[in-house]
Amino acid sequence: MENRTTLAEFVLLGLSEDETTQMVLFLIFLPIYLITLVGNILITLVIRADPQLHTPMYFFLNNLSFLDICYSSVTVPKMLENLLATKKTISLSGCIAQIFFFIFMVGAEIFLLSAMAYDRYAAICNPLRYSTIISHRMCVQMVLGAWISGFLDSLVNTLFLTGLHFCGPCSISHFSCELPLLLQCSCTSTFANEMVILTFSMTLGFASLFLIVASYIRIINTILKISSAEGRQKAFSTCASHLTVVLLFCGTAFIRYMRPASSYSDTLDKLVSIQYSILTPMLNPIIYSLKNKEVKTALKKLFSK
Question: What is the pTM of this model?
């Protein structure tokens, strides 16, 4: 019983136990994190500086960039620290806090991507009513809804952790604390926690996924009805960046969380986590800047100044 109540920290095993490999990984992931910060901050500055980008689509993109900065910063700095540290530990409270903020940010991003899909649907399928459907008030409400949904998802999941006891010592075979991995360290039954994860993932996750899929079904149907090839290409280009980001982020996030902890696969989960928590936040600003003429034009204006 004492072991259950006195456990104060966990060991994060990271991606490798070899010191040389750890240094190589540090030299790889540090530039990736810096590119993530610079890229997303740059997107935010460009949107704020260029009046032509003060539209609903870029309002959502501005919030997406902020979320990418936040949720990559929840895990990557600690991972970089542990790659250089001899003692690779994290406190119980620090582990729970990391889980809380990570689920918060990831949940908010999934709902924000849903809002962006609805925005693209309104722009392509109802262009004449677009300004009426997607008003500034509607944009603010959808962004607030995304933040609140992510917060509630995170709050419920982490509150259920307070009733668990953890046996020591416990090593987590990962570079960060993630909810399915922490459950494996519990001395008590985690059935309720697993059911909460599945229930909220299916309810909130499928709700956002349904909105994205439904929006793109209507979008594709509308694009196919456009007579000219140039018109179809122009319509598709307005949502190509968003669709790419959705496939990168949602696909890997759902693989990671929409299954019980009992089906855990060490190698697969590390690769999936690297994809959606480290690489995707770096790729998002690159995708939007490379595929979007308005952003590229605004970037040139900003650098010319």
Answer: 0.86
